[in-house]
Amino acid sequence: MLHQYMAQIEASALWICLSILFFLIGMAIHDVLKKGEVPLFGRIFVWIVLFLGCAGFLAKGVIQFIYESKGLG
With a threshold of 0.70, does the pTM exceed it? Predict the structure, then answer.
């Protein structure tokens, strides 16, 4: 039975692990910004860049899903 759902389990585990990784990266950046006494403008800039990186990753996943569902990829 486990063999039937292996692809779904692998995909779910990948997304969960990547979500945890993004969370840990965010916590590490927060800690560095806090200990480094970075000014407000710098903190905002860093968080915008981090958010755009995550958004780009999610957009790539959505675009890939759309292409594969239409049979283009």
Answer: no
